[in-house]
């Protein structure tokens, strides 16, 4: 990964780079010395299983994606800014993280049309935490990495 100091080991420095370059969080919204970065990073580490059979970069990206979802949920805005509030909100540019996660859509209908999606078995037993992670692209990526890692995560 370009720009990472230690790409095969999760660390706060590379996670900060990931937030700024891959996610696009400006330094003005999240200064590099913010304690919220370390908090989200540590939560990502705690929630992501390290399995010897996966490549190190897959583990690193899983940790960073998990931490990014958490980062968006917990980080307060800087004075006179609304960056994280906007991301958490239900409006344009937001992920509606203030609403209650309910389920994965399996059908939709009105008087003239009807649609249904087959829900894979791996999604039928999602917990509220899993459903919450489904609401951001980084949370969904974290769940995808978990499914690739295998049944240890309970999602395979």
Q: What is the rounded Rg? A: 17 Å
Number of strands: 2
Q: Would you tell me the structural class of the helices and strands?
A: mainly alpha
For the record, the count of structural domains works out to 1
**Low-confidence regions:** none
Largest sheet: 2 strands, antiparallel
Strand content: under 5%
Describe the structure.
A two-stranded antiparallel sheet has the order 1-2. Strand 1 and strand 2 form a beta hairpin. It has helices spanning 12-23, 35-47, 56-74, 83-88, 121-124, 128-133, 137-149, and strands spanning 107-109, 114-116. The radius of gyration is 17 Å and the shape is globular. The chain has one domain (12-100, 126-153). With 156 residues, the protein is mainly alpha-helical.
Q: Which features characterize this protein?
A:
7 helices, globular, 156 residues
Can you lay out the helices and strands and say which pair or pack?
Elements: H1 12-23, H2 35-47, H3 56-74, H4 83-88, E1 107-109, E2 114-116, H5 121-124, H6 128-133, H7 137-149
Antiparallel strand pairs: 1-2
Helix pairs in contact: 2-3, 3-7
At a glance:
It is built from 7 helices and 2 strands. With 156 residues, the protein is mainly alpha-helical.
